[in-house]
C-alpha cells in the first residue's frame, strides 16, 4: 500500500507500533495471488463531473501575497469561489490551463491559512466550507474490481488527486489554524457535513483515507457538539460492515481514530461506550478482512481494558464466542490479541476467564496447523502469563494436560513436539505432585470419556426408536380417524339418499 | 397414549437437556438439529412446560446452534400440541429475533412468519401482535430490524383498531434513527403496502415512500426504488403521476450510481407497473439517460433491459420510439469502453430484429451485429453468436455468414478453453442454420480439430458435438465425412487421441445405427483391445458395453464375447474389472 509522500502533520497517535501481524503466516509455501496476477495501476474518478453542465473558463487572479490588506479577504473569497470549479481528470489533457490556475490558487490558499494570521474571518467560513464540500463530497464510483481485496490488489487511485490533495490540505490547515473558531465553524461543519465526510472513508485511495483520518480527528477534537454524533455514525458504519456488506475500505482508519478517542474516555465508563465495545468492536472480529485492521482493533480492545479492568470478562468471552473455526490465519491473529490482553490483565480478572480461555488454548495446541499450535504454545514464553499460570496451576493444568499429553505423542511437526515438552517440563517443575496425579489418571479419564460417548450413542438410538414408534402411532391414529370420518360420511350420504328416495 | 406415557419416564428432561448443553459445539449442534426427536420423546405437554422454557432461557450460544434452533421452531407446531398451543413457540423465537447475527435473525423471522399463519385471529391479537410491537420498540437495532418483516403477516387478520396501531409502529420504524432499521423498513415497504387498504396506501405508504426515497443514505434510497415499483402496481392509473412519479423520476437521476443502478435493474417491472402512457412520457427519456449514464455499472444494467423494454412498449408507437430514441443509444453502446456493457448489450441486441422486422434489421441492426462480431472481447462475440436464431428468423443467417466465419474461427482457437467450450456448444445450432454445405466447407475441420485439443473438457464437448451434428445431418453424412476421420485417430501415436476415438464411437454408435456400427466401428474397437496402454484397453471394454445394445446378437457372440473374455484375464485390474462388468451387462457370461 502506498503511503502519502507527505504525511499530514501531527497525525493521531499510531497504534500500529505496538503490534504487528506475525509475518510467519505469509510463508505458507503457496504463491500469493498477487504474484501471479499482473499488477496494474488503475485510477478512477468520481461520477460528480457530469453534473457540471457548462465549463467555466478560469482566469488567474492576482497573488494573495501582493494584495493590499484591505482587499485580502475579498481576494481570498474570490479564490475560494474559483476553486469550486471541477475538472475532468480522466481526460488528462482537458483544460490544462484551468487545472493549473486552480492548483496554484489552492496552493496559495493552503499557504495563506497555514502561515498568515488574521485571515480567517467570519464571512470566509461559509465560503471555505462550501469550497471543501463541492470538491470532496462526491459519490464514490463503483469499484472496478468487484472482488477487490485490499491486501492483494492495488487500490484504484483517485484521478483528481492533484486538486483533491490540496483541498484536503487546506481543510486540515483551516482546522489547525490558531485563528480557527469552533463556535463559528459549527454552523457549517454540521451533522450532515460529518456524515458525508464519514462516507468518504470508503474511498479505495489510501492517500485520501489518510487525510480523512487526520481531519476527522481534528473535527472530533475541536467541535465538541459533534462528538456523540460522530461516534454514533461510526457505529452505524461498522454495524453495516459487519452484518450487511462486509465492504468498507476505511475500517482501519476509523479504528485508529477510535483508539485515541477511547484513550480519552472518562471513568467510570458510560454504558454507551461499553455497548460499543461489546456490540461493535468484538463482533468486528468476525469480518473476513480482519487482517487489514486487526492491529488497530486489538489496540482499541486493549485500550478499553486499560481504562476499566471490569470489561475484561466481556472481551475474552466475546472473542471465544467468535473464535475462528476454519480460518487458521485468523486464529493466529486471535491468539496474538489474547496474548496482548493477557499482558495487561489483572490477576483477579484472569481467574474469572481462565477456564473457558484455557480450554480454547488447549484446542489451539491440538490444531493440525502448526502455526496455530506454535502461537498458542508461545504463551508459555511470556513471563507474565507464566506467572498467572503458575498461580492458578491447580485449575489450568488439568484443563490442558490431556491435550498436551496426547499432542506430544502424535503431532506431525517436530517443533511443536519440542515446544510441548518444554511446556510439560515447566508444569512438572511448577507442581510435580499434580503432574504425577494427572499422568497416572490419564488412561482412566480416557476410558471414562469413551464410556460416556457410548452412553450418548445409546441414548440417541433409543430416542430415535421411540420417535419411529411415535410417528407410526400418530399416522395410524390419523388413518383411523380418517377411516372413521369416511364411514360417517358414507352412512350420512346413504341416509341422505334414502331420505331422497322416500320423498 | 398410555403406552407412550410410560416411555416418557425413561427420559428425564435433565438427560436430554444435558445433550443440548454439551461442551462440544458439534454435539450441541447435532442435538439441536434433532430437537424434534427430543420433543417427541417428551410429549406435547412437557415440551411446552419444560423444553420451551429451557430453550428460551438459554439462548446464548454459538450462532450456528441458534440458526438450527430458529429453523426447527418454525415447524414445531405439531410438537407443542397443534395450532391451539402454537403461541408457546413465540418466546424463544422472540429472543432469537433480537440476536446480532443476521442469518439467525432472518431465520427466526422466517419461522415467525410461518407460524403466524397457524395462529387463530384471536391468538394473533393476544400473543403475536404484542410480540411484534415489543420488537418494534426494542432498544437495539436488531429487534427493530426483525420487526419490519412481521407487520405484513399479521395485518390482514386483525381488527381495525389493531391495524391502526400496526400502521403507526411501521411509520415509526421508517423514520428510525439508525440506517439499518430504515433499510429493513424500506425493503419491506412494498410487501406491507400490498396488504394495506388502498386508502391507507395513499395516506400512509406514499409519504413513507417519499421520505425513504430521499433518505440521506443511498443504501436506504436504493431499497425504496423496489418498494416504489410495488406501490405503483397497487395504485390506479390516474393517481400514479401525483403520488409516485415525481419520486421515481428523482430516483432515476439520483446522484448515487447505486440508486440509478437499482432503477435500471428494476426497469421492466417499473414499466409494467406504470403502464403505456407514463412509459411513453417518462420512462423513455429516463431509459435513454440510463443507457448514457456515466457509470458503466448503470449502463450495463440498462443495456440488459433493452430487449424487454422494447418488447413491452405500446404497439402503436413501438417502432417509432425504438428507431428515434432507443436505437441511437444502442449504437453508442456498441462501442462502449466497458466490456461488461458491450456484452450485456450483445446478449439482447439480436432480439431487436424480431421487433423491428426485416428492413430495419438489415439497414440498422446488421451493421451493429457485424461490429460486435469483431469485438475484442470474446464474451461479446459469443453472446452475439449464441442468439443467432433470432436473426435467422427475420433475415436468414446468410447475410451474416461472411463475418460469422472469422469470428467463429477466432473463438474456436481462443487461448481460454472456456471460450472454446462455449463456441462448441453453439456448433449444432450454427450448423442447423448455416446448412450442411457451408458446414462441410468451413466448419468441419474446426470440429475435428477440437477432438485433439489438449484440454479434456474440450475433447469431451467435441465428441458430444459430433453426435448432435449427426442427429442433424443424418447417418449417411456421418459415414462420409466424420466416421473415417474419427476411426483414423485409432492409429495415432498419442494414447489420448486413441481414446478419443473410443469416446466418439460411444457417442456416435446409436445415432449412426447398426450397420455403420457393425461394419466400420466395431472392427476398430476390437483391434484396439490389444493396445499396449491399459487405459485404452479398459476403455475398449467400456465401449463394447456401450455399443453392445446397437449390435445384433451374432456379432456379440462371435466377435465381442471372445475379446471381452480375453480382456477379463488381462493383468491390469482395471481392465479386468471393466471387462467383467461389460460381460455381465451384455449378458454374455
From TrEMBL, chain A:
One of its GO terms (cellular component) is nucleus. Belongs to the phosphatase 2A regulatory subunit B56 family. Residues 13-23 have a biased composition (Low complexity). The gene is LOC113105825. Residues 33-44 have a biased composition (Basic residues). One of its GO terms (biological process) is signal transduction. Residues 1-53, 477-503 are annotated as: Disordered. It comes from Carassius auratus (Goldfish). Residues 491-503 have a biased composition (Polar residues). Residues 1-12 have a biased composition (Pro residues). This is Serine/threonine protein phosphatase 2A regulatory subunit. One of its GO terms (molecular function) is protein phosphatase activator activity.
TrEMBL record, chain B:
The keyword Cytoplasm does not apply. GO terms for molecular function: protein phosphatase regulator activity. HEAT repeats lie at residues 12-50, 89-127, 166-204, 205-243, 244-282, 283-320, 326-364, 365-403, 404-442, 482-520, 521-559, 560-589. Keywords: Repeat. Signal peptide: none annotated. Residues 276-357 form the Phosphatase PP2A regulatory subunit A/Splicing factor 3B subunit 1-like HEAT repeat domain. The keyword Repeat applies. PROSITE patterns: HEAT_REPEAT (PS50077). One of its GO terms (cellular component) is cytosol. It comes from the Eukaryota. InterPro entries: ARM-like, ARM-type_fold, HEAT, HEAT_type_2, PP2A/SF3B1-like_HEAT, PP2A_Regulatory_Subunit_A. Pfam families: HEAT (PF02985), PPP2R1A-like_HEAT (PF22646). Belongs to the phosphatase 2A regulatory subunit A family. This is Serine/threonine-protein phosphatase 2A 65 kDa regulatory subunit A beta isoform. It comes from Carassius auratus (Goldfish). The lineage of its organism: Eukaryota, Metazoa, Chordata, Craniata, Vertebrata.
Amino acid at each position: 500500500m502506498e503511503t502519502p509522500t507527505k504525511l499530514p502533520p501531527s497525525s493521531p497517535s499510531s497504534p500500529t507500533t505496538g503490534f504487528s501481524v506475525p509475518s510467519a503466516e505469509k510463508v505458507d509455501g503457496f504463491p500469493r495471488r498477487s504474484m501471479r496476477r499482473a499488477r496494474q495501476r488503475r485510477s478512477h474518478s468520481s461520477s460528480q463531473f457530469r453534473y457540471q453542465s457548462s465549463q467555466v473558463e478560469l482566469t488567474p487572479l492576482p497573488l494573495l501575497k501582493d494584495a493590499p490588506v484591505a482587499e485580502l479577504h475579498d481576494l481570498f473569497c474570490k479564490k475560494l469561489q474559483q476553486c469550486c470549479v471541477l475538472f475532468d481528470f480522466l481526460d488528462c489533457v482537458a483544460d490544462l490551463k484551468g487545472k493549473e490556475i486552480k492548483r496554484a490558487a489552492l496552493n496559495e490558499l493552503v499557504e495563506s491559512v497555514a502561515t498568515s494570521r488574521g485571515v480567517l474571518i467570519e464571512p470566509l467560513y461559509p465560503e471555505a466550507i462550501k469550497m471543501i464540500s463541492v470538491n470532496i463530497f462526491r459519490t464514490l464510483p463503483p469499484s472496478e474490481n468487484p472482488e477487490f481485496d485490499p491486501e492483494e490488489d492495488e487500490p484504484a487511485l483517485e484521478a483528481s488527486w492533484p486538486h483533491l490533495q490540496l483541498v484536503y490540505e487546506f481543510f486540515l490547515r483551516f482546522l489547525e489554524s490558531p485563528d480557527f473558531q469552533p463556535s463559528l465553524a459549527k454552523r457549517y461543519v454540521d451533522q450532515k457535513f460529518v456524515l458525508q465526510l464519514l462516507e468518504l472513508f470508503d474511498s479505495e485511495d489510501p492517500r485520501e483515507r489518510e487525510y480523512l483520518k487526520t481531519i476527522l480527528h481534528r473535527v472530533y477534537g475541536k467541535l465538541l457538539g459533534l462528538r456523540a454524533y460522530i461516534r454514533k455514525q461510526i457505529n452505524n458504519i461498522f454495524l453495516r460492515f459487519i452484518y450487511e456488506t462486509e465492504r468498507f475500505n476505511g475500517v482501519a482508519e476509523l479504528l485508529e481514530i477510535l483508539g485515541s478517542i477511547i484513550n480519552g474516555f472518562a471513568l467510570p465508563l458510560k454504558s454507551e461506550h461499553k455497548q460499543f465495545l461489546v456490540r461493535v468492536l468484538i463482533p468486528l472480529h468476525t469480518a473476513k478482512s480482519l487482517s487489514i485492521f486487526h492491529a488497530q482493533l486489538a489496540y482499541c480492545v486493549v485500550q478499553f481494558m486499560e481504562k476499566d479492568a471490569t470489561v475484561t470478562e466481556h472481551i475474552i468471552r466475546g472473542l471465544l464466542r467468535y473464535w475462528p473455526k476454519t480460518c487458521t490465519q485468523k486464529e493466529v491473529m486471535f491468539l496474538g490479541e489474547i496474548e496482548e490482553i493477557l499482558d495487561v490483565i489483572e490477576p483477579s480478572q484472569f481467574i474469572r476467564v481462565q477456564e473457558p480461555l484455557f480450554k480454547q488454548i488447549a484446542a489451539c495446541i491440538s490444531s493440525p496447523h502448526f502455526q496455530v499450535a506454535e502461537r498458542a504454545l508461545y504463551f508459555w514464553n511470556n513471563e507474565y502469563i507464566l506467572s498467572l499460570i503458575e498461580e492458578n496451576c491447580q485449575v489450568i493444568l488439568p484443563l490442558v494436560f490431556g491435550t498436551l499429553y496426547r499432542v506430544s505423542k502424535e503431532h506431525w511437526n517436530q517443533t511443536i513436539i519440542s515446544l510441548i515438552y518444554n511446556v510439560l517440563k515447566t508444569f512438572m517443575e511448577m507442581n510435580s505432585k499434580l503432574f504425577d496425579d494427572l499422568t497416572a489418571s490419564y488412561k482412566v479419564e480416557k476410558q471414562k470419556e469413551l464410556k460416556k460417548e457410548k452412553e450418548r450413542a445409546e441414548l440417541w438410538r433409543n430416542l430415535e426408536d421411540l420417535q419411529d414408534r411415535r410417528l407410526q402411532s400418530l399416522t395410524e391414529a390419523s388413518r383411523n380417524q380418517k377411516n372413521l370420518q369416511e364411514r360417517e360420511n358414507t352412512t350420512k350420504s346413504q341416509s341422505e339418499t334414502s331420505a331422497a328416495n322416500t320423498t | 397414549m398410555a403406552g407412550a406415557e410410560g416411555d416418557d419416564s425413561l427420559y428425564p428432561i435433565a438427560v436430554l437437556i444435558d445433550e443440548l448443553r454439551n461442551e462440544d459445539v458439534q454435539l450441541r449442534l447435532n442435538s439441536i438439529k434433532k430437537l424434534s426427536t427430543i420433543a417427541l420423546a417428551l410429549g406435547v405437554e412437557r415440551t411446552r412446560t419444560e423444553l420451551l422454557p429451557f430453550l428460551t432461557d438459554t439462548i446464548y450460544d454459538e450462532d450456528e446452534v441458534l440458526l438450527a434452533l430458529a429453523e426447527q421452531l418454525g415447524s414445531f407446531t405439531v410438537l407443542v400440541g397443534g395450532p391451539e398451543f402454537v403461541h408457546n413457540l413465540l418466546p424463544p423465537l422472540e429472543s432469537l429475533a433480537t440476536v446480532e447475527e443476521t442469518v439467525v435473525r432472518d431465520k427466526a423471522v422466517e419461522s415467525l412468519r410461518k407460524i403466524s399463519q397457524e395462529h387463530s385471529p384471536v391468538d394473533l391479537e393476544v400473543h403475536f401482535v404484542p410480540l411484534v410491537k415489543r420488537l418494534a420498540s426494542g432498544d437495539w437495532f436488531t429487534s427493530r430490524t426483525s420487526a419490519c418483516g412481521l407487520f405484513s403477516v399479521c395485518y390482514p387478520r386483525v381488527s381495525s383498531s389493531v391495524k391502526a396501531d400496526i400502521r403507526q409502529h411501521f411509520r415509526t420504524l421508517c423514520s428510525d434513527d439508525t440506517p439499518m432499521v430504515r433499510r429493513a423498513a424500506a425493503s419491506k415497504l412494498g410487501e406491507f403496502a400490498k396488504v394495506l387498504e388502498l386508502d391507507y396506501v395513499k395516506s400512509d405508504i406514499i409519504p413513507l415512500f417519499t421520505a425513504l426515497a430521499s433518505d440521506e443514505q443511498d443504501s436506504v434510497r436504493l431499497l425504496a426504488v423496489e418498494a416504489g415499483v410495488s406501490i405503483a402496481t397497487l395504485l390506479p392509473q390516474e393517481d400514479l403521476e401525483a403520488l409516485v412519479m415525481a419520486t421515481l423520476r428523482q430516483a432515476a437521476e439520483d446522484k448515487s450510481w447505486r440508486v440509478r443502478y437499482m432503477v435500471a435493474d428494476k426497469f421492466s417491472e417499473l414499466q409494467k407497473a406504470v403502464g403505456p402512457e407514463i412509459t411513453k412520457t417518462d420512462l423513455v427519456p429516463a431509459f435513454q439517460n440510463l443507457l448514457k449514464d456515466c457509470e458503466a455499472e448503470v449502463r450495463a444494467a440498462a443495456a440488459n433491459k433493452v430487449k424487454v423494454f422494447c418488447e413491452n412498449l405500446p404497439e402503436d408507437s413501438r417502432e417509432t420510439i425504438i428507431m428515434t430514441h432507443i436505437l441511437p443509444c444502442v449504437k453508442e453502446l456498441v462501442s462502449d469502453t466497458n466490456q461488461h456493457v458491450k456484452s450485456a448489450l450483445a446478449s439482447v441486441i439480436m432480439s431487436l430484429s424480431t421487433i423491428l422486422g426485416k428492413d430495419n434489421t438489415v439497414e440498422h441492426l446488421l451493421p451493429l451485429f457485424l461490429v460486435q462480431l469483431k469485438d475484442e472481447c470474446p464474451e461479446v462475440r459469443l453472446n452475439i453468436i449464441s442468439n443467432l436464431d433470432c436473426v435467422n428468423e427475420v433475415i436468414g443467417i446468410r447475410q451474416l455468414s461472411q463475418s460469422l466465419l472469422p469470428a467463429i474461427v477466432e473463438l474456436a482457437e481462443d487461448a481460454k478453453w472456456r471460450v472454446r467450450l462455449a463456441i462448441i456448444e453453439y456448433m449444432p445450432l450454427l450448423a442447423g442454420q448455416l446448412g450442411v454445405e457451408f458446414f462441410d466447407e468451413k466448419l468441419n475441420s474446426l470440429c475435428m480439430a477440437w477432438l485433439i485439443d489438449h484440454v479434456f473438457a474440450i475433447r469431451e464437448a467435441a465428441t458430444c458435438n459430433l453426435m448432435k451434428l449427426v442427429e442433424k445431418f443424418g447417418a449417411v453424412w456421418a459415414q462420409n465425412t466424420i466416421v473415417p476421420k474419427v476411426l483414423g485417430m485409432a492409429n495415432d501415436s498419442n494414447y489420448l487421441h486413441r481414446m478419443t476415438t473410443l469416446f466418439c464411437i460411444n457417442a456416435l454408435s446409436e445415432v449412426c445405427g447398426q450397420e455403420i456400427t457393425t461394419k466400420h466401428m466395431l472392427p476398430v474397437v476390437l483391434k484396439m483391445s490389444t493396445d499396449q496402454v491399459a487405459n485404452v484397453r479398459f476403455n475398449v471394454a467400456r465401449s463394447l458395453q456401450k455399443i453392445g445394445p446397437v449390435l445384433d446378437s451374432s456379432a456379440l457372440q462371435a466377435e465381442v464375447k471372445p475379446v471381452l473374455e480375453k480382456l477379463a484375464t488381462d493383468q491390469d485390474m482395471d481392465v479386468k474389472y471393466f471387462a467383467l462388468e461389460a460381460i455381465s451387462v451384455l449378458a454374455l457370461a
